[in-house]
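Thread title: Can someone regenerate the structure for this chain?

I was given the following input by a collaborator and told the matching structure tokens would be attached. They weren't. Posting the sequence so someone can regenerate them.
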Amino acid sequence: MMIPLFKENADIEGFDVLERKMIRTMALHRELQHILALEYEAGKACRPKELDRLLLRKKNSVNRFEHLVRSINEQLNRMAYMALPKTAPRTLANRVKVLLGLTPELEATLVPLARSLEAEHRKLIEAARRNTALFKDVLGRYWVAGQYASQGE
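Best answer:
Regenerated them for you:
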């Protein structure tokens, strides 16, 4: 028996795979938010060993996150039957809406998932900005203390 080159239900499988990738990305968002919260607390308490450990965890999570985002982007590009109009915002929800074979049932699951994924992403960006501001402030204080300490040299 020959195995067909193309699966008969490839459209549905593509949507299932897309949904699983989006759910895994949501889980990584939550993990990164947790790591950023721990990093913020460790930064405020000036615990460098804990910061080193968290930095390694964050780097690993960010690498997995980047891989998943690239994978979702490539899959959306493959599945889209047309490009978004130039006037439409390039949101994940809009990109999902132009997928070939999108049924109302699939749209009812994927579009809210895409919107919540974008909301989680915005929260992640805000947490990263908060940590960046904290670390710039701490580094600035260390620099000033170093300048003050080395005045007599």
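DSSP finds four helices and no strands in the chain.
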